[in-house]
Amino acid sequence: MFAVLKKNKKVILFFIFCYIMIFCFNFFKNVDLDLLWNYGFSKNISDGLIMYKDFNMVITPLYPLLTGLIMKIFGTNMIIFYIINTFYAMLTLFIVYKLNKKLIFPFFIYFIFNTAPGYNTLSVFYVFLLIYLKKNNKSDYLIGLIISLAFLTKSSIGVFLALPTLYYIKKPKKILKRIIPFLITNLIIIIYLYFNNALYDYINYAFLGLLDFQGDNGNFNPITIIVILMIIYLIREYLKTKDKELLYILAFQIMAYPLFNISHTLLAFTPVVYYLLKKYPKINNLIIKTAPIFILIPIISLIINYNICKPTYDNNLFKYRYLQKEYRNDIDALENYFNGEYDNVYFFMMEAYLYKLTLNIPITEYDLTLKGNLGYNGEEEMINKIKNLDDSSIIVTSAIFQESKSSIIKTQASRKIYDYITKNLSLIGQFHKFRVYIK
After folding, report:
1. What is the pLDDT of residues 97-140, one digit of tens each?
2. What are the phi and psi torsion angles at 365 (to 5°)?
3. Which one of 72, 246, 357, 409 is CB 3.0 to 4.6 Å from 46, fit for a cystine?
4. DSSP code per residue over 229-291
5. In angstroms, what CA-CA distances link 94 with 4, 15, 18, 20, 42?
6. Do 236 and 117 belong together in one domain?
7. What is the pTM of this model?
8. Which strand (E) or helix (H) includes residue 330?
9. Residue numbers in the chain where pLDDT is lower than 50
10. Helix (H, G, I), strand (E, B) or coil at 344
11. For residue 174, what are the domain limits?
12. Helix, strand, coil: what percent of the chain each, to 5?
């Protein structure tokens, strides 16, 4: 064993370097809501809550289920969460290394900037793993299993990655071999949810709600044009080369839809970067030859992140972790106003997870009231739930809703739910950036 380690010393040191850099690069960043939602879903599982029944989410269940179970063993603090997610990112690097060792360093330079903890980063792993399995003619059963895991991590990714893997198959028997593991793994999830009285909620939130998510959150902008041009390029490349890898890369561009923002698009382009590095070896070799310069890029970025985002907030969740001054002020204001009494208090705002996790208030189905995250006809259903709350229930909203409709139209916050609260409940207080209503 020691002989093997000695023989691969440089490779092992490189991957240790990558792990440390990815962990630190993400840990010393501003906290954003996507991070908190991904962490919150996993913590909910670790705390024993039932997905879709006790809390709502639009994604399929594998990422929070897997991450939550690991957190149950090692702890639910942020450091453990980042350690786990850094490992997910390393899985992608390892597969790229197995595909083409010469590409690993230039690929890492790009990939490090797109490894934010969450199910989207885990989804990148599946596209590279399927390329690897196809290239090495691995078992159809194994390929079917990976497609299923991709579907159970992010349904749209799983569906689109299934298309190229079935494209070249002419024998029904091979198709059946790929379908069987898909059916078995999904059946296990269905049985689990059924016996926890959460199956309907799963279908409603994870699938029926996508119709509202797409319609309300689609954001066509200049990035949309870039994605379309990239898709056209990939199609042309495939028609010229018939390279089967391109079908998986093309399918993965669904990652950018429907938000078409920078983070989703850069993540969607991750396998494209791999392909371009392979297609243009001169660029790849140039990056390798100037390695010291490119190594400095993530190191300098890390130093900047650390100096801007020094760990400053000392509580159970954010111990050793930076939390923006804006959020610290929000939390201090909530603590001073409620004085630790949060019984029958509901937070209807995008930041609900941040405040409740930090203040150690249990998460409920009322804490992610975003358009598209509430199932079919979800805003109306949530309004009905508000109507059925106990009298004297306290509802807190963000002052952002005092602004004009046009200024918040691009957020996921539900204007319809806010309008119901402001028109039908009594305003009893306003402090800092919050409004307080009573039913």
Report:
1. 999 999 999 999 999 999 999 999 999 999 999 999 989 988 99
2. -70, -5
3. 72
4. HHHHHHHHHHHHH--THHHHHHHGGGGGTTT--HHHHHHHTHHHHHHHHHH-HHHHHHHHHTH
5. 17, 8, 11, 15, 24
6. yes
7. 0.92
8. helix 325-338
9. 404, 406-409
10. coil
11. 2-304
12. 70, 5, 25
**Cα separation of 85 and 255, whole Å?**
19
Q: How many CA atoms lie within 13 A of 307 on its CB side?
A: 6
Same domain flag for 160 and 199: yes
- Beta-carbon contacts of 56 under 8 Å, excluding residues fewer than 6 positions away, are 201, 205, 365, 368, 373, 374, 375
Domain contains 76: yes
The whole-angstrom distance between residue 422's C-alpha and the CA centroid of its chain comes to 32
**Rounded to whole angstroms, how far apart are CA atoms 32 and 316?**
18
Other Cβ atoms less than 10 A from the Cβ of 429: the count is 12
Quick check: is 258 in a domain? yes
> Which has the closest alpha carbon to 124: 268, 279, 23?
268
Take residue 264 and report the two structure tokens written for it. 């989703």
Question: For residue 30, what are its two tokens?
Answer: 């501003």
In angstroms, rounded to a whole number, what is the distance separating the alpha carbons of residues 113 and 391? 48
- Same-domain status, 299 and 337: no
Total domains in the chain come to 2
Asked if 288 and 332 sit in the same domain, the reply is: no
CA distances from 428 to 197, 341, 410, 438 (A): 37, 16, 29, 7
Tell me the pLDDT tens digit for each residue of 5-47.
Answer: 667 788 899 999 999 999 988 988 888 999 999 999 999 999 9
Q: Please indicate, yes or no, if residue 390 is contained in any of the structural domains.
A: yes
Give the per-residue SS3 of 72-89: HHHCCCHHHHHHHHHHHH
Tokens of 332: 């201090």
The whole-angstrom separation of Cα 348 and Cα 368 is 8
Q: Are residues 103 and 252 in the same domain?
A: yes
**Contact call for residues 64 and 45 (beta carbons, < 8 A):** yes
Q: How is residue 101 annotated by DSSP?
A: G
Side chain identity at residue 161, one-letter code: L
The verdict on residue 311 lying in a domain is no
| 384 and 347 co-located in one domain | yes
Are 178 and 141 in contact by the 8 Å Cβ rule? The answer is yes
Spatial distance between the Cα atoms of 152 and 138, rounded to a whole number of angstroms: 21
Q: How far apart are CA 145 and CA 185, in angstroms?
A: 8
